[in-house]
Amino acid sequence: MKNREQYAGIDWFRIAAALLVVTIHTSPLAGWSAEADFFLTRVLARVAVPYFFMVTGRFVLADYFLSEDFQAGRIGRLGRYLRKILILYVVSILIYLPVGIYAGHYEHLTVGEVCRMLLFDGTFYHLWYFPACIMGVGLVCLFVRLWKIKGAFVAAGALYLFGLFGDSYYGLAVKCPPIALIYKKGFSLWSYTRNGLFMAPVFLLLGACVVSRKKTRRQMGRGQLVIGLLCSFALMTAEAFTLRYFELPRHDSMYVLLVPTGFFLYGLLERGPDGLPGTGWHIPRALHLLYAPRMLRILRLISTGIYILHPGMIVVVRGIAKFSGINSLVENGILHYFCVVLLTVAVVCPAAVLLEFLVKKRSLTQKGSGRSGDADAVCSEQETNGFGISTDRAWIEISRDALQANVAFFRERLPEDCQLMPAVKADAYGHGAVIVARELNRMGVEAFCVACVQEGIELRRAGIQGEILILGYTHPSWFDALRKYRLSQTVLDVAYANALRQYGKKLHVHIGIDTGMHRLGERCEHIEEICRIFDMPNLIVDGMFTHLSADDILGEQEQAFTMGQASRFTAVMDALGARGIECPKIHLQASYGVLNYPELAGDYARVGIALYGVLSTREDTLPWRDELRPVLSLKTRVAAVKEIYAGEPAGYGLAFTAAQTMRLAVLTIGYADGLPRALSDGRGEVLIRGQRAPIVGKVCMDQTLVDVSGLADVRPGDVAVVIGRSGGEEITVCDIAEQTGTITNEILSRLGKRPGRMMI
Ligand SMILES: *Cc1c(COP(=O)(O)O)cnc(C)c1O
Question: How many other CB atoms are found less than 10 A from the CB of residue 183?
Answer without folding.
Answer: 17
